[in-house]
Amino acid sequence: MFILHLRAKPGAKTTALQVAADGSVTVRLRAPAQDGKANACLLAYLAEVFGVSKSSVELLSGHTAPFKKVRIDGVDETAGQAVLARLQAAA
Question: Which PANTHER family match (predicted)?
Fold first, then answer.
């Protein structure tokens, strides 16, 4: 299980995950922040990025806040950090 702390920014032109030099994670979401659409978009996008099913991604905290804590089952800490490092290098 991998726990990811991130900042979500709904209403963006495209959905994308960015990792800053300090390791902070920001996810820009195309979906608006209304009726849970942004959270649903976030969970589906993270499932795609980490290669797991949607049911393996759970929002632990931050349901109505920009700062969120997400659990990703089926991905260990090493694999999760490797995905983030790859995304950071690609930026």
Answer: UPF0235 PROTEIN C15ORF40 (PTHR13420:SF7)
Please identify which residue in the block is written with the tokens 């929002």: 59
CA angle 8, 22, 72 (to 5 degrees): 50
Question: What digits encode the pLDDT tens for the residues 23-79?
Answer: 899 999 999 999 999 999 999 999 999 999 999 999 999 999 999 999 999 999 999
Phi/psi of residue 60, nearest 5 degrees:
-85, -40
Site of tokens 């299980």 = 1
Return d(Cα 25, Cα 90) in angstroms, integer: 14
Token pair in block for residue 29: 């979401």
